[in-house]
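Hi F.,

I've been meaning to write this up properly since the lab meeting, where we talked about keeping a consistent format for the predictions we share between groups. The idea is simple: the sequence comes first, exactly as it goes in, then the structure tokens exactly as they come out, then a line or two of notes. No screenshots and no reformatting. I'm using this chain as the first example so we have something concrete to point to.
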Amino acid sequence: MARIDDCKELVNIQKQLKKYELITSSVPFPMSIVNKDYTYEVVNKAYSKYLNHSIEDIIGNKIGYFLGEEVFEKEIKPNIDRALSGEVIEYTIEVDFETIGRRCMKMSYIPHKEKDGTINSIISYGQDITNENKYKETILFSTNYSNSIFDAIPNIIIASDGEEMDKANQVMLDFLGFESIESFKKEHDCICDYFENKDGYIKPNMNGMKWLDYVLKNKDEIHKVCIIKNNVEHIFLLTARLLEFDEKKRSIAVFTDISYLTQVETNLKQSEINLSRIIDNSPLAIFVIDKLHNVIHWNKECESLTNVKKEDILGTKNHGEIFYKKQRPTMTDIMIDGNKQEQIEKYYKGKYKISSKSNSIFEAEDFFPHLGEDGKWLSFSATPITDNSAEVIASVEILKDITEDKKILEKLHEQEKLMLTQSRQAAMGEMISMIAHQWRQPLSIISMDANNIIADIELESLNEDVLKSTSFDIIRQTKELSKTIDDFKNFFKPNQEKEFLKIDDVIKDTIAVIGKSLKNNNIKLIITGDINSQINTFSRELMQVLMNIINNAKEAIVYNSIKDGYIKVEVKKYKNNLNIRISDNAKGIQKDIINKIFEPYFSTKELMNGTGLGLYISKTIIENHLQGKIEVENNQDGAVFNISLPLD
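Output, unedited:
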């Protein structure tokens, strides 16, 4: 009789072990049962994977054999001994595994009591928290485990015997506010009493089936449950699995709280709506295409610019035809495709540039004859949109109608040309005055020589040698007159293309025109620095600037009656620029007007018939034509003009 009882007990033990094995196999983290000899009795698949040994190889062997005797003796054994004495143990340990390397494990040991109250084994389960910081946005397992396998998982877990809920973990009890499963069952038959009746979520009855049966049958689908607690909506991801270890249809259901993910999803959708509103109400025309080149955004300003409604373009690939009257890539299409530089060069050669804000943004200007009645000038930029892995998922193009700006700019250019002409005419008047002044002495000499010849003829005292000497003197003076004409002719010679030359050549041409005027006014001209530096520039325009500044300095010195007046031109080569500094000792420019002297028609020489265009044209030439920079300041002696020009 005792043998029969022993057999029954053995069968019960085997069933119990089978039950443990089935339960542990469904747990995704390492779990084992270890006896008081520190030998494995049960391990699950997750545990065997960490040890890189089969379950059969592990069972019956001691812990130290796999994890190392040193770490076993120092850290594992003391905690197991405490658990064998009746304590529930939780601690963290770093373990070197054979294949996956060093891992940080959060371990829990739960005493396993026999019927007589003795403890011969413990239940061990661990949570790999090595990468916990890397996965903050994922659902983390709870670090607090209770005294059962169900409580070891930080999600709501319930077990069903096929008829009713027969077990639930502490997480569920805490969430719903119950001390025990018994107190829960006094008020409810099933957790489904808390399910909210919402479309898209699991309800107590689904298509004529109980909710758990429905989930088990449709295990490949994603199931969500909504439960409201304290007026706060919680969304759970629901999974279930059959436990086939006896004749009953036992199963486990796991509820994973993904409320924060749902909130993130809601926030993301709201962000998409807000982004769409921002794009739609932008004062600039904006359209966006996805990686398949389909238009996914087409805002109001884009509708106005192209006269194409969004409902007619969204979801199509027809945006290229709208701008070019034929199907060809726009700049935003090129952002999606590879070989951006090659494609940009092919379709927008000479019209584009890479943005200073980012190397991935391309900017361009172009005329679109098919837009509007007379065509439109557009300024546009395109940039790719990438995901976290830097893969291009979309592209956006921003467009601005600059037709009116172009018209205004054209008018400004015309005005600039007019002012340049006026400036040159004013300069011509000054040059003619200089020519007249420089011709006065040679003409006087020629006139005097001619009178001497006539007088000698009338007095019949004409000497052949004297006549020859006088004639040569007349020839010398006419050559001087001719040289003066050549010097001034260089100033008015058109300069259509840039040329490489020494800066000294431009300075010499300038001195040839105004040098005598400086000498006549006893003004010393000092030239220093890197005057042999080569520069690629428009020499006549630069000469006009130098003449304007030097002539202004001369007039200021004369006007202020400066004794020992001087004008200094200093040339210095710095990196890729040539810096020209022109200073004088004419007492400087008044502080209240120094910021206005580059304005058109502003002059301090009203009494001397100044036009007020010289310095304005000088600034226009330096900054718009020669791509340089010009500034003015005062020093202790007078005014200082600083000019910076690119060498090439």
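Notes:
DSSP finds 19 helices and 25 strands in the chain.
The CA atoms of residues 1 and 430 lie 138 Å apart.

If this format works for you, I'll send the rest the same way.

G.
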